[in-house]
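Per-record layout

source: Gulbenkiania indica
name: DNA-binding ferritin-like protein (Oxidative damage protectant)
length: 154
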Amino acid sequence: MDIGINEQDRAEIAQGLSRLLADTYTLYLKTHNFHWNVTGPMFNTLHLMFETQYNELSLAVDLIAERIRALGHYAPGSYADYARLTSIPEAEGVPRAEDMIRQLVEGHETLCRTARGLFDVAGRAEDEPTADLLTQRLQTHEKTAWMLRSLLEK
């Protein structure tokens, strides 16, 4: 494979993207869970908001996995892989709506940190497609975290 990025850099980028994929999939599952189980006076608003968010995360999972494949590596795809790679904790039980929001803010902020951690190697390897993907993910996660955070203001 000769796409202008050496094997060592491709492997390092794919490894980082695998962590991003695991975080994204874990947050997708958490958001979908909260969509199904939210209750309270903000039910309709949160139910619809969470649906929009998990749909976006579902599309992102595919984009990230396909970038890993384009770099010549296999994308992780099992719960065991994701549990080993993610830095986002699973929800315990069914939290109250406000705690769901707080957990999702933390999840999106975690994804921002995971994505930011990949810019150095992508830049060093002149891997613009990965850098572009990371920029798009950051824009989405920062905006979503801001919107969710706004719901927590008194």
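summary: The first helix runs from residue 7 to 37. The domain at 31-152 is CATH 1.20.1260.10 (Ferritin).
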